[in-house]
Amino acid sequence: MSPAAPPPVTPAPSAATSATTSAGPPRPASRLLDWRVRFGALALIWGFSFLLIKVGTEGFAPFQVTFGRLLFGTAVLAVALVVKRDRLPRGARVWGHLTVAAFLLNALPFSLFAYAELTIPSTLAGICNATTPLWGMLLSLVALSEDRPTRVRAAGLGIGFVGVLTVLGAWQGFSGLDATGTALALLASFSYAVGWIYVRRTLAGTGASNLSLAGSQVGLATLQLAVVTPLFTSMPDSVELLPLLAVVALGALGTGYAMLLQYGIVAEVGPTTASMVTYFIPVIATAAGVTLLGERLGWNTPVGAVVVLAGAALTQTRSSRRRKAPLPEAREPAPAPRESASCS
């Protein structure tokens, strides 16, 4: 989810290969079970993030929920950096790009989703998060000239757009939906797409590890919210336990631990397989919202969500024809939805 927030750079392609070379042939059965279990855990964590946002906003202002989420996420990633003895990125230019990435992939979409869920169900927020690949496809028409869309991917964009209209009940004049909240959730997904394009163009090949870049990015986003939150919110009169636990879980699990899980899965099975977690997130978010929060669903919501996911899947297909000079950064990591990033 919010997503996840999302990790900031392409995965190291040699991770799985070097592990196999140094340790001999892996044991297929145990490794397959291992990544599948972690894949399922990642889908559950990101799927439940929208429920946690909803619960968190019942006791805290949206900016406070986002700040807490980023703070606890940073703490988890900082511990991981210390344990692995990894170093922070170097160079003012890299830190400048990370500051922009932190805003586009963490601070802005996390805040938008938190504000959106003040007025829309967590189920709808989860479905809006799934539109990130559609926005990315649309932006690629302008921003990524080396990634020309095929007819199949263009068709996926159109199908996904029809799915969005179905979810929103366009034939009913969007009645029963809060237009502002829905727009904020879609804008959050759009921010993820813009952020991924920015990261792809600026942070590939920096020499820093994925963990180092991720921890630095989330840490910078925490600083951004630390500045903004006091300007627009005041301390709550009382702190309720359930919203507090929701914010802690949202940060420690949905932002920090989830990013560590994703990087491990990408390194082991590759970005294509890992990116499939995107299609489970709205399903889990919907199930959680309906069963645990009592949110109501019209027939058009699940039907439209299926159409959105089908369109998003088509936009991720790649042409079988090889490019003349493929770029290293052309391989994208799993999108985040999030905490996308993003995932939420």
Describe it.
There is one protein chain. This protein is an all-alpha fold and 344 residues long. The protein has 13 helices and no strands. Helix 2 packs antiparallel against helix 10 and helix 6 packs parallel to helix 13. The longest helix has 29 residues. The N terminus and C terminus are likely disordered.
* Helix fraction by DSSP (H/I, runs of at least 4): 55-70%
As residue ranges, the low-confidence spans are 2-33, 321-342
What are the secondary-structure elements, in order, as H or E? HHHHHHHHHHHHH
Using only C-alpha atoms, the radius of gyration works out to 19 Å
Helix count equals: 13
- Going by helix content, strand content and strand pairing, the class is mainly alpha
Largest sheet: number of strands, sense, barrel closure:
none
Strand content: under 5%
Q: Tell me the total number of β-strands.
A: 0
How would you describe the shape?
A: globular
Task: Calculate the terminal CA-CA distance, rounded to whole Å.
Answer: 3 Å
| Mean pLDDT over all positions | 80
